[in-house]
Write a structure and sequence with these properties.
Oligomer: single chain
Shape: elongated
Helix content: over 70%
Order of helices and strands: HHHHHH
Number of domains: 1
Largest sheet: none
Structural class: mainly alpha
Strand content: under 5%
Distance between the termini: 25 Å
Radius of gyration: 18 Å
Number of helices: 6
């Protein structure tokens, strides 16, 4: 049964990575793009978010369950991997949410909710060139990419 639980965890990781990959591609594709293209790309990214959350739930359920089924909770690597995942999620949310809310408002993308408009402050289409030139996508990719590699190393090598 343990192997099937780990399989659930891995499937969740793949669904999460595939769905999130859309947002990563969008983050780099918007650099220097015009208003209509930015709005369309942000809508595409928003469509992928559902898969991201499904993958994250499967990943967490499978990982926690595998931790119990495999007796791993007494090992440090599983706690470190979980702590790093939480840190990545918090950092990504703190860095990405206000940035993409501002981009949505500036590009006049569809589906802007009041919270996004509030986070964005007083921005408009004239701010778009500055926003799309931001280095924030590089910071997000570094945080997510390095964090993922460290988590994979912990899960495979199980160093402590």
């Amino acid at each position: 049964m343990y192997l099937y639980i780990v399989l659930l965890h891995v499937i969740g990781a793949f669904v999460f990575a595939l769905s999130h990959g859309v947002s990563v591609a969008v983050a780099f594709a918007i650099r220097g793009a015009g208003r209509e293209r930015v709005a369309a790309l942000l809508e595409l990214s928003q469509m992928a978010v559902g898969g991201l959350y499904v993958g994250l739930v499967l990943l967490l359920v499978g990982g926690v369950w595998a931790g119990f089924a495999g007796g791993h909770w007494g090992r440090g690597w599983i706690w470190a991997a979980l702590a790093i995942l939480v840190a990545i999620l918090v950092a990504m949310y703190a860095i990405a949410t206000p940035y993409y809310a501002t981009l949505r408002v500036a590009s006049e993308a569809t589906g802007i909710v009041p919270a996004q408009r509030e986070r964005a402050g007083d921005v408009g289409p004239d701010d778009l060139p500055r926003l799309t030139a931001s280095a924030r996508p590089f910071a997000l990719a570094a945080i997510g990419g390095i964090g993922l590699l460290v988590i994979l190393w912990l899960m495979v090598v199980k160093p402590f």
